[in-house]
């Protein structure tokens, strides 16, 4: 037991596993950073667009504060359409658009485009679900005080849904880690590309295993962070 | 304060049309506590929600103060709503805000400057007795405390009118009483008009000045609470009253009195007390004065709002003409008398 711990702490397991392949450490580190970068920016951008879209989807629904069947049906339809395309196909489908925006369709910056565009409708639906959990009575109470739709959104919907929205961010990020690996296979960079070249094409498990371990740590970390932040809010209110 | 004219509300669902209010007209005067009572589904919530337009009337008009609420545009309606407080059965407090921030909420909506608003919140928390819970979250409060926050919140913008949709229905009897006391205090201190709906006649009995009975989408009886309690006209009203105040003499007592006594020398009467006479020794005065016996069979004395109110079933035994004189005496004291064994 203590042998195992000292082995982990000293890092000697790493050198004994890698042997002479120390280059693996630097390439995994670079790829990890690329993944974090892509996923981070894509998550951020997908909320910049997806959060308002979710708000619109909720509030334009039947009987809601900004009821508008036409807008609701059209946006809902687009969201469903994008969500029904498997990511790997979507990625290829929007290459022309990616080229227009970034100038190329290869590399981390280019991957951010399909990642973001695919995540926006996903985020919108997550946000929609979070908002629908809020009791209608709270919205009505605000309306009875003379709140405008904007005030209802900012003072009731968003603050009340915050813990649930934060959990949604964790889910989105984790999904994007998965998507980014797919993007990596078509040259998107990050851990996906690394695993594809060294793992799939040459089957070098000296690269595969560290990649898998880093992915597990990333996903765990994001989930724990999300859970922790959400719990901090709900605990305080309890 | 409120004038409802020919209000009709029809809910249209994909499968049917539901008539929730059928040509309802009603006036609520400034400064009174007006109760609306009815069974589940009678249309109470629909009626109260039409008053601040949470529900849009199908036909009819509603005047609140001097504004026709049914004719306002969105912007004016929002301003008007700031002056109509509302409290709810399930409190509807924001879980993301502390007690202080919840009471602050309507002031933010009305864009009251922050330091002025904070001062107001402190006043209100004191009014409802929750100064020491300002930083608690709603989840940390009891039902009664939550409703106090609800009341403070509803009063924040100094409303003309307070609407209460079953505000005590989720509370135990003791907490209900304390919330009702608070509403009475507020009504007196601020001369605030309160319109409340309930299915509990106790609520009407404890706080209301006037009451309307709503049954199957229509107002079937309106009047002063005392008059209604003393003299309910329709069966719905009677059954509401008997739930809180047993007017009816048990059958076996009536049977015995009717069969075992002679109608000439024994009369079975029910006396209804309203107001001050409940405090006078009327019965013993009568017995002394007319030399008859009075045997109390059944009765109860209660309060309707702040007025003593009750009824008493007596067996009066004695000379027939003395009994008649005694009854005239009671009548002269302002009591209502009903003879139960006149067959
Ligand atoms: N949004 C709605 N859509 C359709 N029908 C409704 C709606 N709200 C109420 N109703 C119907 O209108 C009628 C009156 O309902 P309302 O809620 O006013 O009754 P209530 O007297 O408040 O009853 P309770 O004591 O159960 O709250 C009922 O038949 C109810 O089913
Ligand atoms: Mg109701």
N-to-C series of helices and strands of chain B: EEEHEEHEHHHEHEHEEHHHEHEEHE
Assign a percent range to the helix content of chain A: over 70%
Give the helix/strand class of chain A.
Answer: mainly alpha
Low-confidence stretches of chain A: none
What's the CATH architecture name of the domain at 1-83 and 187-244 in chain B?
A: 3-Layer(aba) Sandwich
| Percent helix range of chain B | 25-40%
Distance between the termini of chain A: 41 Å
Strand fraction of chain A equals: under 5%
- Radius of gyration of chain A equals 22 Å
| Strand runs of chain B, count | 14
Number of strands of chain A: 0
Largest interface: A-B, 22 and 30 residues
CATH class division of chain A: Mainly Alpha
Short summary of the structure?
The complex is a heterodimer of chains A (238) and B (343). With 238 residues, chain A is mostly helical. In chain A, 85% of the residues lie in helices and 0% in strands.
């Amino acid at each position: 037991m203590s042998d195992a711990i000292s082995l982990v702490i000293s890092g000697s397991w790493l050198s004994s596993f890698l042997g002479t392949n120390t280059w693996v450490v630097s390439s995994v580190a670079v790829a990890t950073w690329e993944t974090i970068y892509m996923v981070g920016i894509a998550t951020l951008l997908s909320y910049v667009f997806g959060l308002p879209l979710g708000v619109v989807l909720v509030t334009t629904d039947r009987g809601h504060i900004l009821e508008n069947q036409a807008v609701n049906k059209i946006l809902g339809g687009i969201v469903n359409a994008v969500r029904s395309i498997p990511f790997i196909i979507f990625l290829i489908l929007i290459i022309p658009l990616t080229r227009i925006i970034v100038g190329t369709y290869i590399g981390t910056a280019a991957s951010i485009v399909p990642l973001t565009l695919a995540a926006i409708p996903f985020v919108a639906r997550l946000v929609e679900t979070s908002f629908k959990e809020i009791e209608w009575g709270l919205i009505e109470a605000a309306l009875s005080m003379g709140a405008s739709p904007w005030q209802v959104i900012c003072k009731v919907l968003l603050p009340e849904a915050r813990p649930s929205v934060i959990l949604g961010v964790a889910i989105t990020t984790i999904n994007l880690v998965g998507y980014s690996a797919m993007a990596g296979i078509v040259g998107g960079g990050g851990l996906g590309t690394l695993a594809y070249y060294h793992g799939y094409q040459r089957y070098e498990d000296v690269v595969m295993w560290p990649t898998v371990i880093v992915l597990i740590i990333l996903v765990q970390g994001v989930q724990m962070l999300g859970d922790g932040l959400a719990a901090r809010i709900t605990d305080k209110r309890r | 304060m409120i004038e409802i004219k020919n209000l009709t509300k029809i809910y249209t669902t994909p499968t049917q049309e539901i008539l929730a209010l059928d040509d309802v007209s009603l006036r609520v005067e400034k400064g009174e506590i007006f109760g609306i009572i009815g069974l589940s589904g009678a249309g109470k919530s629909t009626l109260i929600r039409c008053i601040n337009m949470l529900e849009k009337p199908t036909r009819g008009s509603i005047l609140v103060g001097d504004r026709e609420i049914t004719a306002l545009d969105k912007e004016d309606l929002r301003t008007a709503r700031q002056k109509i407080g509302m409290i709810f059965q399930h409190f509807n407090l924001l879980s993301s805000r502390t007690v202080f921030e919840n009471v602050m909420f309507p002031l933010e909506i009305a864009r009251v400057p922050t330091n002025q608003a904070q001062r107001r919140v402190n006043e209100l928390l004191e009014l409802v007795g929750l100064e020491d819970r300002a930083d608690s979250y709603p989840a940390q409060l009891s039902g009664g405390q939550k409703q106090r926050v609800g009341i403070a919140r509803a009063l924040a913008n100094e409303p003309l009118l307070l609407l209460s949709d079953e505000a005590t229905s989720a509370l135990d009897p003791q907490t209900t009483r304390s919330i009702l006391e608070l509403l009475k205090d507020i009504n007196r201190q601020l001369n605030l008009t309160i319109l409340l709906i309930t299915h509990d006649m106790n609520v009407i009995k404890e706080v209301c000045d006037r009451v309307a009975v709503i049954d199957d989408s229509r107002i079937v009886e309106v009047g002063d609470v005392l008059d209604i309690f003393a003299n309910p006209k329709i069966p719905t009203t009677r059954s509401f009253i008997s739930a809180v105040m047993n007017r009816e003499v048990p059958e076996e007592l009536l049977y015995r009195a009717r069969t075992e006594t002679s109608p000439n020398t024994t009369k079975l009467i029910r006396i209804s007390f309203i107001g001050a006479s409940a405090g006078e020794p009327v019965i013993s005065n009568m017995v002394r004065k007319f030399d008859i016996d009075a045997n109390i069979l059944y009765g109860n004395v209660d309060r309707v709002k702040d007025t003593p109110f009750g009824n008493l079933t007596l067996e009066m035994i004695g000379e027939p003409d003395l009994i008649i004189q005694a009854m005239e005496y009671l009548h002269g004291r302002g009591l209502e008398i009903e003879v139960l064994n006149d067959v």
